[in-house]
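Quick one, C-alpha coordinates below:
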Protein backbone atom coordinates (compact mmCIF):
# COMPACT_ATOMS: atom_id res chain seq x y z
CA UNK A 1 0.00 0.00 0.00
CA UNK A 2 1.28 3.46 -0.92
CA UNK A 3 2.37 5.35 2.19
CA UNK A 4 0.69 8.55 0.95
CA UNK A 5 -2.77 6.93 1.15
CA UNK A 6 -2.16 4.48 3.96
CA UNK A 7 -3.50 6.81 6.64
CA UNK A 8 -6.30 8.42 4.62
CA UNK A 9 -8.69 8.41 7.59
CA UNK A 10 -6.18 10.10 9.90
CA UNK A 11 -5.19 13.76 9.91
CA UNK A 12 -2.15 14.76 7.85
CA UNK A 13 1.09 15.30 9.72
CA UNK A 14 2.04 18.95 10.22
CA UNK A 15 5.36 19.43 8.42
CA UNK A 16 7.51 22.52 8.85
CA UNK A 17 10.15 23.15 6.21
CA UNK A 18 12.95 25.34 7.59
CA UNK A 19 14.73 27.46 5.00
CA UNK A 20 18.09 27.69 6.72
CA UNK A 21 19.95 30.48 4.91
CA UNK A 22 19.59 34.23 5.25
CA UNK A 23 22.52 35.17 3.04
CA UNK A 24 22.02 37.95 0.49
CA UNK A 25 21.42 36.42 -2.94
CA UNK A 26 20.82 33.00 -1.40
CA UNK A 27 19.88 30.02 -3.57
CA UNK A 28 17.80 28.41 -0.82
CA UNK A 29 14.35 29.58 -2.01
CA UNK A 30 14.86 27.72 -5.29
CA UNK A 31 15.54 24.48 -3.41
CA UNK A 32 12.68 25.07 -0.97
CA UNK A 33 10.21 25.71 -3.81
CA UNK A 34 11.40 22.54 -5.56
CA UNK A 35 10.83 20.56 -2.38
CA UNK A 36 7.39 22.08 -1.75
CA UNK A 37 6.26 20.80 -5.14
CA UNK A 38 6.93 17.30 -3.79
CA UNK A 39 4.97 17.77 -0.58
CA UNK A 40 2.04 19.42 -2.37
CA UNK A 41 0.86 16.21 -4.02
CA UNK A 42 0.84 14.12 -0.85
CA UNK A 43 -2.09 13.56 1.47
CA UNK A 44 0.04 12.65 4.48
CA UNK A 45 1.47 16.15 5.11
CA UNK A 46 0.26 19.70 5.62
CA UNK A 47 3.29 21.89 4.99
CA UNK A 48 4.36 25.30 6.27
CA UNK A 49 7.66 27.16 5.87
CA UNK A 50 9.81 28.96 8.42
CA UNK A 51 12.18 31.10 6.37
CA UNK A 52 15.23 32.49 8.14
CA UNK A 53 15.47 35.13 5.46
CA UNK A 54 12.24 36.55 6.90
CA UNK A 55 12.59 35.97 10.65
CA UNK A 56 15.71 36.42 12.78
CA UNK A 57 16.73 34.66 15.96
CA UNK A 58 19.78 36.45 17.44
CA UNK A 59 22.81 34.63 18.78
CA UNK A 60 22.39 36.07 22.29
CA UNK A 61 19.84 33.88 24.07
CA UNK A 62 17.73 36.34 26.01
CA UNK A 63 14.91 35.78 28.48
CA UNK A 64 12.14 36.01 25.87
CA UNK A 65 11.50 35.55 22.17
CA UNK A 66 12.83 38.26 19.87
CA UNK A 67 10.32 40.59 18.19
CA UNK A 68 8.51 38.96 15.30
CA UNK A 69 9.62 35.43 16.16
CA UNK A 70 6.49 34.23 17.93
CA UNK A 71 4.74 32.98 14.81
CA UNK A 72 7.76 30.95 13.72
CA UNK A 73 8.04 29.42 17.19
CA UNK A 74 4.34 28.57 17.20
CA UNK A 75 4.79 26.76 13.87
CA UNK A 76 7.69 24.74 15.26
CA UNK A 77 5.73 23.85 18.39
CA UNK A 78 2.72 22.65 16.40
CA UNK A 79 4.79 20.61 13.95
CA UNK A 80 4.86 16.83 13.85
CA UNK A 81 7.96 16.75 11.63
CA UNK A 82 10.63 18.97 10.11
CA UNK A 83 12.65 19.22 6.94
CA UNK A 84 15.71 21.46 7.23
CA UNK A 85 16.90 22.90 3.92
CA UNK A 86 20.49 23.98 4.44
CA UNK A 87 23.47 25.18 2.43
CA UNK A 88 27.00 24.41 3.46
CA UNK A 89 29.08 27.34 4.71
CA UNK A 90 32.74 26.60 5.46
CA UNK A 91 32.13 22.84 5.89
CA UNK A 92 29.15 23.42 8.19
CA UNK A 93 25.69 25.01 8.38
CA UNK A 94 24.69 28.69 8.66
CA UNK A 95 24.79 30.67 11.90
CA UNK A 96 21.16 31.73 11.40
CA UNK A 97 20.10 28.09 11.46
CA UNK A 98 22.06 27.41 14.65
CA UNK A 99 20.36 30.40 16.29
CA UNK A 100 16.92 29.08 15.36
CA UNK A 101 17.80 25.66 16.76
CA UNK A 102 19.26 27.04 19.99
CA UNK A 103 16.27 29.28 20.71
CA UNK A 104 14.06 26.18 20.91
CA UNK A 105 14.08 22.96 22.88
CA UNK A 106 10.77 21.22 23.46
CA UNK A 107 9.66 22.17 19.95
CA UNK A 108 12.10 19.60 18.49
CA UNK A 109 11.74 16.93 21.15
CA UNK A 110 10.73 13.39 20.08
CA UNK A 111 9.99 14.56 16.54
CA UNK A 112 11.66 13.56 13.26
CA UNK A 113 13.97 15.85 11.29
CA UNK A 114 14.97 15.26 7.68
CA UNK A 115 17.48 17.19 5.58
CA UNK A 116 17.71 18.67 2.10
CA UNK A 117 21.13 20.18 1.45
CA UNK A 118 22.86 22.05 -1.32
CA UNK A 119 26.29 23.43 -2.02
CA UNK A 120 29.39 22.89 -4.08
CA UNK A 121 31.14 19.60 -4.60
CA UNK A 122 29.91 18.10 -1.31
CA UNK A 123 26.28 19.05 -1.92
CA UNK A 124 25.95 20.34 1.63
CA UNK A 125 26.39 16.91 3.18
CA UNK A 126 29.01 18.15 5.66
CA UNK A 127 26.43 20.62 6.99
CA UNK A 128 23.98 17.74 7.44
CA UNK A 129 26.53 15.62 9.30
CA UNK A 130 27.14 18.52 11.70
CA UNK A 131 23.40 18.98 12.25
CA UNK A 132 22.70 15.35 13.18
CA UNK A 133 24.43 15.42 16.61
CA UNK A 134 22.93 18.84 17.34
CA UNK A 135 19.43 17.47 16.87
CA UNK A 136 20.31 14.31 18.79
CA UNK A 137 21.22 16.51 21.76
CA UNK A 138 17.74 18.04 21.51
CA UNK A 139 16.11 14.58 21.59
CA UNK A 140 15.00 14.76 17.96
CA UNK A 141 15.21 11.78 15.59
CA UNK A 142 17.02 12.41 12.32
CA UNK A 143 15.93 10.56 9.19
CA UNK A 144 18.70 8.63 7.51
CA UNK A 145 18.08 9.43 3.84
CA UNK A 146 18.70 12.95 2.55
CA UNK A 147 18.38 14.89 -0.66
CA UNK A 148 21.53 16.77 -1.68
CA UNK A 149 22.38 18.96 -4.64
CA UNK A 150 26.02 19.13 -5.69
CA UNK A 151 26.85 22.37 -7.54
CA UNK A 152 23.18 23.20 -7.09
CA UNK A 153 23.13 26.30 -9.32
CA UNK A 154 23.93 24.19 -12.37
CA UNK A 155 20.99 21.80 -11.95
CA UNK A 156 18.05 24.21 -11.96
CA UNK A 157 16.71 26.26 -14.85
CA UNK A 158 15.53 29.87 -14.70
CA UNK A 159 12.06 28.74 -13.54
CA UNK A 160 13.49 26.72 -10.64
CA UNK A 161 12.88 23.38 -12.34
CA UNK A 162 15.47 20.65 -12.03
CA UNK A 163 16.95 19.86 -15.43
CA UNK A 164 17.34 16.11 -14.79
CA UNK A 165 14.83 15.33 -12.02
CA UNK A 166 14.68 11.53 -12.06
CA UNK A 167 17.17 10.82 -9.27
CA UNK A 168 16.39 13.80 -7.03
CA UNK A 169 12.64 13.22 -7.36
CA UNK A 170 13.14 9.62 -6.26
CA UNK A 171 15.31 10.77 -3.36
CA UNK A 172 12.63 13.25 -2.27
CA UNK A 173 9.99 10.51 -2.30
CA UNK A 174 12.19 8.22 -0.19
CA UNK A 175 12.86 11.00 2.31
CA UNK A 176 9.18 11.89 2.58
CA UNK A 177 8.09 8.27 2.90
CA UNK A 178 10.52 7.75 5.78
CA UNK A 179 9.52 11.05 7.37
CA UNK A 180 5.84 10.11 7.13
CA UNK A 181 6.47 6.83 8.97
CA UNK A 182 8.55 8.46 11.69
CA UNK A 183 6.19 11.38 12.21
CA UNK A 184 3.18 9.07 12.61
CA UNK A 185 5.04 6.61 14.83
CA UNK A 186 6.44 9.30 17.13
CA UNK A 187 3.11 11.12 17.35
CA UNK A 188 1.40 7.90 18.40
CA UNK A 189 4.15 7.21 20.93
CA UNK A 190 3.92 10.74 22.41
CA UNK A 191 0.14 10.38 22.64
CA UNK A 192 0.36 7.12 24.59
CA UNK A 193 3.28 8.20 26.77
CA UNK A 194 4.56 11.79 26.90
CA UNK A 195 8.26 11.97 26.22
CA UNK A 196 10.34 12.66 29.35
CA UNK A 197 13.81 14.19 29.09
Amino acid sequence: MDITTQHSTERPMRLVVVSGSNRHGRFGPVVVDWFLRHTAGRGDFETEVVDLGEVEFPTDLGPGLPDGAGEATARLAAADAFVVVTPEYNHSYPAALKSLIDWHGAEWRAKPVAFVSYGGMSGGLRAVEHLRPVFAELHAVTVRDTVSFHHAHTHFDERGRHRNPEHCDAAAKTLLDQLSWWSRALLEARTVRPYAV
